[in-house]
Design goal:
This protein has 221 residues and is of the alpha+beta class. It has a domain of 143 residues: PAS domain (Beta-Lactamase, 2-Layer Sandwich). The chain contains 4 helices and 9 strands. Strands 1, 2, 3, 4, 5, 6, 7, 8 and 9 form a 9-stranded mixed β-sheet that branches. Strand 7 and strand 8 form a beta hairpin. Helix 2 runs antiparallel to helix 3. It is elongated and about 95 Å long.
């Protein structure tokens, strides 16, 4: 009986010497596999994030190029030149119609404006949540006190100005829902080379997701 117990103990010890290292090796392999998979997942995640950033940068560059092109077009627009050089009421109406068609076609500009050298809106079209409209004379505003107007009125021929991203304000109140906006403008000259004002577009497209970030924007109109 004692011999059997000794034999059983010996077998258990030998089994332990064999299986315990095997278990430790298996556990080590599982751990190494986990580390390798985690590292691979992390590498994939980093690569995906880099791709997202690169795509965002490419979109920003593409959008900026399009805005620059549009503002340059508006500054040289034939109907605007006719209004400045001929000073006929009908030409102002034609410019408003052109701005309306432009805003309707582009869909990314919340406002399209011509502002004179005194900082007053002369012609303005609002995108109006997908229903573009020409703003009546009674609703046109003085913008002379706003920093971006001062910066734009200082521009020389061929120059453009882009404001910081902020919240749009109308008549002293932040628009609801809030509209994170970048304004881009260019100077306008008449046939005699005199500066007559600026064209300004309020670019809003692409900022609808701003609220998911904990950001604060300075408000301007």
């Amino acid at each position: 009986m004692a011999a059997r117990r000794m034999l059983g103990a010996t077998v258990l010890r030998r089994a332990g010497l064999i299986f315990v290292p095997l278990v430790m090796i298996a556990a080590s392999l599982v751990y190494l596999l986990y580390r390798a998979q985690s590292s691979a997942y992390w590498s994939i995640f980093q690569a995906e994030q880099r791709e997202i950033v690169q795509l965002a940068q490419q979109r920003a560059i593409s959008d900026l190029s399009a805005i620059i092109s549009d503002v340059g077009y508006l500054a040289r627009q034939e109907s605007l030149q006719q209004m400045l050089n001929l000073a006929r009421p009908v030409d102002r109406s034609r410019l408003a119609v052109d701005y309306l068609a432009f805003a309707t076609h582009k869909t990314v500009y919340d406002q399209v404006r011509f502002i004179d050298t005194d900082g007053r809106e002369v012609v303005r079209v609002d995108f109006n949540n997908g229903r573009p409209r020409v703003v009546p004379d009674a609703e046109l505003q003085e913008k002379v006190d706003h920093p971006y107007i001062h910066e734009m009125l200082r521009l020389q021929a061929g120059q453009l100005y882009a404001s910081a991203l902020d919240l749009n304000v109308e008549r002293g109140m932040v628009e609801q829902p809030p509209k994170p906006t970048i304004r881009m403008g260019a100077p306008v000259f008449d046939a005699e080379g005199r500066k007559r004002g600026i064209v300004v577009v309020n670019y809003q497209n692409g900022f609808s997701q701003w609220s998911i970030f904990n950001c604060r924007f300075k408000a301007q109109d």
